[in-house]
């Protein structure tokens, strides 16, 4: 299947053509990577690189002090677009394990980094590579041809699956399995950490479902299509998006349609990811009386969210408090 990608609001594209200007940097830095080509022989801890802070947070819960973890995309950044830095090549060159979201979320920036890092251990199909989406509950898998006219639609489904806590459980199990394979001497430690993670997650889910009971069924509009898994689990009714199609900036006509819809259906909330421009959502909120919330989909999206558990604590309590409940 041939996939086409459209340009985003910033003028960037998922197409890695925009990375060509980094070729001289990649070439120069690649030589330095050879200093670090045997990390397991020099470093006591496994070196783990995760494509996002969410995956890094779960990896830390499982690996604890037995691993060092680096996240490429920070929680306040759009994970579809990452500017490559020489330091990323050094991290990837030293890595024992690479954990990615997959679903082509990283397609616009990760392949050239992997190519220039020259670390075969973490290439697809090798022991140090983990696509965290395997076995997860994936929504919105498109049927038929996927092309530019559909916007930035991912051909394998919506990649924001980590916003379902049960998918977090699946991810944790995958990471535990990989760490045990790569570091069998500490396999029992990783197994114990997984058990602790799952016990905490189960207890948290009970609390989160109680919080969500105060707003299940509420209608919301989100900026980007980041929330189908979260909405399914916690009962939000996402009725529209500020983007008419993923990655496509809204036309004046679409904005007016949103304003009319919010007024007509009394939609109380606009949920905006922290890496999008707030001006237009603020304008829509001002004209309709809806409340605009900066609503982080990732660990590190705001300073209060330091762990995967914090992500749901923060977002669910934000919804409850905004809609009149008490935390």
State the order of secondary-structure elements, H for helix, E for strand: HHEHEHEHEHHEHEHEHEH
| CATH topology assignment of the largest domain | Rossmann fold
Secondary-structure arrangement, i.e. CATH architecture of the largest domain: 3-Layer(aba) Sandwich
Q: How much beta, percentage-wise?
A: 5-15%
Considering DSSP H and I runs of 4 or more, what fraction of the residues is helical? 40-55%
Kindly provide the name of the CATH class of the largest domain. Answer: Alpha Beta
Strand order within the widest beta sheet: 2-1-3-4
Number of strands: 8
Domains counted in the coordinates: how many?
Answer: 2
Shape: globular
CATH superfamily of the largest domain: Nitrogenase molybdenum iron protein domain
Q: In this structure, how is the largest beta sheet organized?
A: 4 strands, parallel
Kindly provide the radius of gyration, computed on alpha-carbon positions and rounded to a whole number of angstroms. Answer: 20 Å
Q: What is the residue-averaged pLDDT?
A: 88
| Structural category | alpha/beta
**Low-confidence runs (pLDDT<50, min 5 residues)?**
1-19, 29-42
Counted by DSSP, the helix tally is 11
Measured between the Cα atoms of the first and last residue, the distance is 47 Å
């Amino acid at each position: 299947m041939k996939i086409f990608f459209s340009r985003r609001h910033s003028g960037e594209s998922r197409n890695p053509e925009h990375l060509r200007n980094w070729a001289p940097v990649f070439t120069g830095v690649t030589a330095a990577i050879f200093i670090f080509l045997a990390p397991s022989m020099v470093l006591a801890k496994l070196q783990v690189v995760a494509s996002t802070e969410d995956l890094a947070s779960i990896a830390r819960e499982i690996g604890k002090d037995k691993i060092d973890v680096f996240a490429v995309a920070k929680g306040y950044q759009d994970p579809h677009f990452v500017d490559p830095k020489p330091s990323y090549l050094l991290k990837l060159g030293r890595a024992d394990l690479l954990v990615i979201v997959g679903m082509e979320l990283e397609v616009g920036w990760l392949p050239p980094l992997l190519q220039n890092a020259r670390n075969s251990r973490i290439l697809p199909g090798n022991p140090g590579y983990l696509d965290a989406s395997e076995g997860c509950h994936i929504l919105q898998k498109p049927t038929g041809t996927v092309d530019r006219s559909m916007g930035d639609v991912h051909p394998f489904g919506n990649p924001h699956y980590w916003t379902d806590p049960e998918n977090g459980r699946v991810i944790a199990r995958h990471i535990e399995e990989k760490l045990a394979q790569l570091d069998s001497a500490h396999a029992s430690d990783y197994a114990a950490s997984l058990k602790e993670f799952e016990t905490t997650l189960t207890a948290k889910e009970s609390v989160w479902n109680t919080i969500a009971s105060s707003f299940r069924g509420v209608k919301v509009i989100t900026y980007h299509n980041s929330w189908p898994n979260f909405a399914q689990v916690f009962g939000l009714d996402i009725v529209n998006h500020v983007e008419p199609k993923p990655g496509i900036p809204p036309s004046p006509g679409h904005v007016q349609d949103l304003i009319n819809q919010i007024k007509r259906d009394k939609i109380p909330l606009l949920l905006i990811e922290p890496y999008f421009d707030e001006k237009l959502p603020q304008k829509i909120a001002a004209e309709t009386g809806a409340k605009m919330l900066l609503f982080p989909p990732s660990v590190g999206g705001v300073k209060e969210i330091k762990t995967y558990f914090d992500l749901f604590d923060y977002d669910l309590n934000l919804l409850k408090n905004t809609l009149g409940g008490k935390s």
